[in-house]
């Protein structure tokens, strides 16, 4: 006679035990292990709670219009000073011999971010005064949008000596970022400005040595990397300076905030939790299916 399945019912079996019993104790221990063991394993394996992180980003760098150029000669104690700072224009304007200054910011890929900077100047040379050394400072505004908003006033400092019989200098370099501490993500996304180097309050701060020393003490600053220099020795009555600076991606070290840490921590925790919960469930099933502890079955 043919038998047909016309209805089915699921039998639910509940295992019950008293509060103070071995079964309750084993269940409590298994639950604690299931929750705490993934956290312990992920924490001591490293990387769960990220104190520091790094990311390659394209910074938004803009030239703020301020520069300082010092050209020195061993035959004259007074240097040639070209600058946009009001202090130098007021007190050292008579030493300015830069006939032309050209500044150009280039957006090569048209993404509304500056990719390179060209700085060109021509220095009129007094008679019998060849330039032996040159120092130049360009002030920049450095901004990051991700992973956290950061803004600072930075600089490009370049020094070249032994320029005797050189009348044309061209420098090709990349803008680098030097960090002795990580960038802290601010939850209110306010600008994290370093002390401005272009708004000095004392005349001593405008001295080039002090100027460079104060900037070198900064924990986060920009520097020149991969410099390539070419020289021209054709004698002329002027000295030509050409700086070509590119803005590549920078490796940014930063301190993640709480939500950024949790975003990566929970993935590691869940991955270990799934395996741990499966192993613990198998152990519990073995204990209760083989009646290793006292309990009561309630069938429904």
UniProtKB/TrEMBL annotation:
<dbReference type="InterPro" id="IPR019306">
    <property type="entry name" value="TMEM231"/>
</dbReference>
<keyword id="KW-0325">Glycoprotein</keyword>
<keyword id="KW-0812">Transmembrane</keyword>
<dbReference type="GO" id="GO:0032880">
    <property type="term" value="P:regulation of protein localization"/>
</dbReference>
<dbReference type="GO" id="GO:0060170">
    <property type="term" value="C:ciliary membrane"/>
</dbReference>
<keyword id="KW-1133">Transmembrane helix</keyword>
<dbReference type="Pfam" id="PF10149">
    <property type="entry name" value="TM231"/>
</dbReference>
<comment type="function">
    <text>Transmembrane component of the tectonic-like complex, a complex localized at the transition zone of primary cilia and acting as a barrier that prevents diffusion of transmembrane proteins between the cilia and plasma membranes. Required for ciliogenesis and sonic hedgehog/SHH signaling.</text>
</comment>
<keyword id="KW-0472">Membrane</keyword>
<dbReference type="GO" id="GO:0060271">
    <property type="term" value="P:cilium assembly"/>
</dbReference>
<protein>
    <recommendedName>
        <fullName>Transmembrane protein 231</fullName>
    </recommendedName>
</protein>
<comment type="similarity">
    <text>Belongs to the TMEM231 family.</text>
</comment>
<keyword id="KW-1003">Cell membrane</keyword>
<feature type="transmembrane region" description="Helical">
    <location>
        <begin position="264"/>
        <end position="281"/>
    </location>
</feature>
<keyword id="KW-0966">Cell projection</keyword>
<dbReference type="GO" id="GO:0035869">
    <property type="term" value="C:ciliary transition zone"/>
</dbReference>
<keyword id="KW-0969">Cilium</keyword>
């Amino acid at each position: 006679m043919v038998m047909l399945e016309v209805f089915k019912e699921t039998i639910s079996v509940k295992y019950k035990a008293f509060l103070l019993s071995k079964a309750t104790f084993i269940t409590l221990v298994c639950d604690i292990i299931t929750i705490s063991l993934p956290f312990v394993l992920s924490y001591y394996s490293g990387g769960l709670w990220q104190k520091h992180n790094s990311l390659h980003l394209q910074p938004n760098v803009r030239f703020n219009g301020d520069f300082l150029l010092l050209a020195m000669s061993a035959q004259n104690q007074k240097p040639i000073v070209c600058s946009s700072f009001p202090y130098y224009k007021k007190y050292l304007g008579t030493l300015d011999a830069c006939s032309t200054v050209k500044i150009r910011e280039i957006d090569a890929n048209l993404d509304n971010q500056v990719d390179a900077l060209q700085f060109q100047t021509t220095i009129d040379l007094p008679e019998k005064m060849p330039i032996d050394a040159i120092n130049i400072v360009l002030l920049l505004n450095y901004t990051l949008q991700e992973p956290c908003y950061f803004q600072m006033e930075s600089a490009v400092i370049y020094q070249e000596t032994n320029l005797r019989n050189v009348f044309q200098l061209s420098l090709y370099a990349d803008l680098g970022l030097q960090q002795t501490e990580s960038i802290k993500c601010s939850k209110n996304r306010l600008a994290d400005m370093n002390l401005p180097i272009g708004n000095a309050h004392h005349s001593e701060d405008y001295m080039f040595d002090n100027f460079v020393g104060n900037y070198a003490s900064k924990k986060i600053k920009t520097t020149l990397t991969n410099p390539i220099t070419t020289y021209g020795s054709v004698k002329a009555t002027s000295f030509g300076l050409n700086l070509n600076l590119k803005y590549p991606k920078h490796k940014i070290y930063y301190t993640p905030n709480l939500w950024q840490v949790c975003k990566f921590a929970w993935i590691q925790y869940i991955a270990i939790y799934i395996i741990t919960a499966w192993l613990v469930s198998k152990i519990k099933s073995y204990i209760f299916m083989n009646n290793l502890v006292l309990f009561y079955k309630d069938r429904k």
